[in-house]
TrEMBL record:
Alphabetized PROSITE patterns for the sequence: MAPK, PROTEIN_KINASE_ATP, PROTEIN_KINASE_DOM
Pfam family, one: Pkinase
Key words of the record: ATP-binding, Kinase, Nucleotide-binding, Phosphoprotein, Serine/threonine-protein kinase, Transferase
Protein name: mitogen-activated protein kinase
Similarity remark: Belongs to the protein kinase superfamily. CMGC Ser/Thr protein kinase family. MAP kinase subfamily.
InterPro entries: Kinase-like_dom_sf, MAP_kinase_CS, MAPK, Prot_kinase_dom, Protein_kinase_ATP_BS
Domain spans labelled Protein kinase: 16-201
Gene Ontology molecular-function annotations: ATP binding; MAP kinase activity; protein serine kinase activity
Stored Gene3D superfamilies: Phosphorylase Kinase, domain 1, Transferase(Phosphotransferase) domain 1
Residues reported to bind ATP: 46
Enzyme Commission numbers on file: 2.7.11.24
Record field: catalytic activity: L-seryl-[protein] + ATP = O-phospho-L-seryl-[protein] + ADP + H(+); L-threonyl-[protein] + ATP = O-phospho-L-threonyl-[protein] + ADP + H(+)
Enzyme class: transferase
Length: 201
């Protein structure tokens, strides 16, 4: 994909050379790129028409804020947020992430010979990440294989914090964050109805 088709007149676009599209969704598109300043491979997430729906804009803002604060080896890292040329008039956002090769869904689908050692290492990384996230009173709420990025060296990183929430009240309070939480088949039992609880994971 030519750079001019991916970027919409962003002044910082010259820093990155687009390689290929690696993902598409309702939010927009993700492409791999080379940072010409460092030579590093990165992933750039282009979010289209970010202000078209208020709920989507809030979700994107929430994800960016949380990922800027949550710094951990098992959580995907935001490297840079490209500033628009005009802060009063822009509709697309470009977020630069570290580049990962695949996701756990694809790894499971493509490999029927994963050993118990693989399973243990995957679980260790996920539990370590969740302990860190929960210690910050943040709850991901949409943890599933597609939201866990993976490399060929078995390194995993949790991503997509769009449905995540932070809770700062230590008391037992009713949780009414959203009507929809988590993909059905990966939903925690306590999220299958309306409950009063201290936390919703």
């Amino acid at each position: 994909m030519p750079d001019k088709e991916f970027f919409t007149e962003y002044g910082e676009a010259s820093q990155y050379k687009i390689q290929e599209v690696i993902g598409k969704g309702s939010y927009g598109i993700v492409a791999s790129a080379i940072d010409t300043h460092t030579g590093e491979m990165v992933a750039i997430k282009k979010i289209n028409d970010v202000f078209e729906h208020v709920s989507d804009a809030m979700r994107i803002l929430r994800e960016i804020k949380l990922l800027r604060l949550l710094r951990h080896p098992d959580i995907v890292e935001i490297k840079h947020i490209m500033l628009p040329p005009c802060r009063r008039e822009f509709k697309d956002i470009y977020v630069v992430f570290e580049l990962m090769e695949s996701d756990l869904h694809e790894v499971i689908k493509a490999n029927d010979d994963l050993s118990p050692g693989h399973h243990k290492f995957f679980l260790y990384q996920l539990l370590r990440a969740l302990k860190y996230i929960h210690s910050a009173n943040v709850f991901h709420r949409d943890l599933k294989p597609k939201n866990i990025l993976a490399n060929s060296d078995c390194k995993l990183k949790i991503c997509d914090f769009g449905l995540a929430r932070a809770q700062f009240n230590e008391g037992a309070t009713p949780i009414f964050w959203t009507d929809y939480v988590a993909t059905r088949w990966y939903r925690a039992p306590e999220l299958c109805g309306s409950f009063f609880s201290k936390v919703s994971t």
